[in-house]
Each structure stands twice: as structure tokens, then as C-alpha cells.
Design a protein that fits this description.
With 112 residues, the protein is an alpha+beta fold. 24% of the residues lie in helices and 38% in strands. It has helices at 2-15, 24-36, and strands spanning 20-21, 56-59, 63-64, 68-80, 86-98, 103-111.
């Protein structure tokens, strides 16, 4: 059952927002990709679920007709540091989703 849900989520993220900006889950998943690019050991990254109280997604939710959807994702990631020790870090990623081109970009990635 979990594999089916995960495959559905991956399919949802790959297809993007469609014609309206209602992709809070997509923004959360894409933020993880941008955070991983900044980590020393990205394969060690462990993120919380989106329904965790430590995850916040702000953005253009349920707004139709926008060409660019903007989001800010705040959460945390547990990953190995330079010494190989697992540590918790807070992060903020500001994202833009281009509806017409179906592309995501990060305007800011901040990891504490």
C-alpha cells in the first residue's frame, strides 16, 4: 500500500501543478531535492512527513491562472555532517514553479 502511495506521489510531482497552484505537496518534495544538493552526504538525508508539525508550506495554494507559483517551505532534515555524525538541521527553501514550462527552481536554499 505504501509503495502505491509513493508511486502516486512521484507521478504527481513529475507532472507538476497543472493549470493551478495547488501543489503544496509538490513544493515540499521539490524542496527536499534542493536541500539534498547542499548536503555533504545527500544519501543520508531523512526528512519528516509533510503532515509533521515541523513542516510549513506557504504559497500560492488554490490560485488558478498564475504563470508562476511561489512557495516557501520550512522544515528540517537529519543527515550526516563532515564527521559522519547524523545531525538535525532546519531549512528554508523558496521555490518558484513555472506552470507553462512545468519547471521548478529554487530562489533561496538556507540550511542552519
Amino acid at each position: 500500500m505504501k509503495k502505491i502511495a509513493l508511486l502516486g506521489l512521484i507521478g504527481f510531482v513529475l507532472t507538476g501543478c497543472g493549470d493551478k497552484c495547488d501543489s503544496d505537496v509538490g513544493a515540499f518534495v521539490m524542496s527536499q531535492n534542493f536541500v539534498k544538493k547542499k548536503l555533504k552526504y545527500p544519501s543520508s538525508a531523512v526528512f519528516p512527513y509533510i503532515d509533521d508539525s515541523a513542516v510549513y508550506v506557504y504559497g500560492d495554494i488554490d490560485k488558478e491562472g498564475l504563470e508562476i507559483c511561489e512557495y516557501s517551505v520550512h522544515g528540517y532534515v537529519e543527515s550526516k555532517n563532515s564527521f559522519g555524525v547524523m545531525v538535525n538541521n532546519k531549512y528554508t527553501v523558496d521555490l518558484k514553479y513555472n506552470v507553462k514550462n512545468d519547471t521548478w527552481s529554487a530562489t533561496q536554499v538556507f540550511i542552519q
